[in-house]
Amino acid sequence: MPNIKRIFIVAIILVLLFGSVFLYFKRQVYFSHGTGNIPQTFEIKSGEGVKDIAENLEKSQLVKNKYYFDYYIWKTNSKGKIQAGKYELRGSMTIPEIVQVVSIGEVVPNETKVTFPEGIDTKQMAEILREKGFDADGFLSKSDCGCGVKTDYDFLKSKPGGANLEGFLFPDTYIFYKDATAVSIISRMLLNFDEKLTSEMRGDIEKSGHSIYEIVAMASILEKEVKSPEDMKIAGGIFWDRIEFGMPLQSCATVAYVLGKEKKQYSYEDTRTSSPYNTYLNKGLPPGPIDNPGMNALRAAAYPTKTDYAYFLTDPETGKTIFSKTIEEHEANKVKYGL
């Protein structure tokens, strides 16, 4: 018995040790930087394999360890996305950032940092780009038609023909070259969405019976309706239940989208505004996303929390979401919070 107990303890220690090593390795893959801080031109020659590229990146001090790069390429299935060319890279870049740059294939020195907050629409993104000196009109035009942009991603297959790219331009902080074209900017954002939406999530979405386009449309509403990830999931459960029961979503976020402005409280007349995006007048999801949601909203749409709640509102003072189970409770909350 003592030997068995000793073996059991050793086994547990080994499992914990290997688990810690794996977690450390995974964190290094996604968050570590190279050891060199000076921007440099890095060339990927035609015919070079991932191992060659990884070794050269390590030699150039652009990645801390070549095996981190190897693992990330394998994990994200990015091997076929890497393009030959000369790139301006820095040791302060993470491996995902490096892969983003070398997947676009555009080499222009000088960079600009651009941050797109979660939940903004394509027009708002264009204004941010305009302020940074980029082609905002081209961005709007290309995101509307998808012209010249790589759009053969699996996650876009459920997008209706003729629909724009709203919802799929992933909100994040990017480093764009100052001469970056609208096509290259959109391509980077779509590539980011492709990497963020894991194969596990895609499989779970398929099992749910919803399309990725439906999940993105729901996520775009949740992004505007509630703030915390937990509340997003509860609200997601309420909205999916309404669709299942044949009820209109009655989302104020869609009314704001139709009117083009946000209000503390929308009038009855506001909710009667004619538009296919008005979920007070139309049942089910709107024709498409109303903004570009982040990961919390996407997860909430894909993994909603089932509860007995049927209604919710937002406290205008604190931004806290107040849930209720009955219409009577909901109406009382509206009075309580001045809505």
Describe this structure in words.
This protein is mainly alpha-helical and 339 residues long. It has two domains: 34-196, Endolytic murein transglycosylase (Dna Ligase, domain 1), CATH 3.30.1490; 225-307, no CATH class. Helices cover 49% and strands 8% of the residues. The protein contains 14 helices and six strands. The strands form three sheets. A two-stranded antiparallel sheet has the order 1-2. α2 (50-59) runs antiparallel to α3 and α9 packs across α13 (295-302). It is globular, with a radius of gyration of 24 Å. The chain starts with a helix and ends with a helix. 29% of the residues are buried. The mean pLDDT is 86.
Give keywords.
339 residues, mainly alpha, Dna Ligase, domain 1, two-stranded antiparallel ribbon, single chain
Give a short summary of the structure.
This protein is mostly helical and 339 residues long.
Secondary structure layout plus pairing:
Layout: H1 2-31, E1 40-44, H2 50-59, H3 66-76, E2 85-89, H4 95-104, E3 111-115, H5 122-131, H6 136-145, E4 173-177, H7 182-196, H8 199-208, H9 212-225, H10 229-244, H11 252-259, H12 268-271, H13 295-302, E5 311-314, E6 321-324, H14 327-336
Antiparallel strand pairs: 1-2, 3-4, 5-6
Report the sheet with the most strands, covering strand number, pairing sense and barrel closure.
Answer: 2 strands, antiparallel
Assign an overall shape: globular
Order of helices and strands: HEHHEHEHHEHHHHHHHEEH
CATH class of the largest domain: Alpha Beta
- Mean pLDDT figure: 86
Number of strands: 6
- Note the beta-strand portion: 5-15%
Q: Can you tell me the CATH architecture of the largest domain?
A: 2-Layer Sandwich
What's the CATH topology name of the largest domain? Answer: Dna Ligase, domain 1
What count of domains describes the coordinates?
A: 2
Percent in helix: 40-55%
Structural class from helices and strands? Answer: mainly alpha
Rg is 24 Å
Biggest sheet: strands side by side, in what order? 1-2
Low-confidence parts lasting 5 or more residues at pLDDT below 50? none
- Provide a count of the helices: 14
CATH superfamily of the largest domain: Endolytic murein transglycosylase
Kindly, what is the distance between the CA atoms of the first and last residues, rounded to a whole number of angstroms?
68 Å
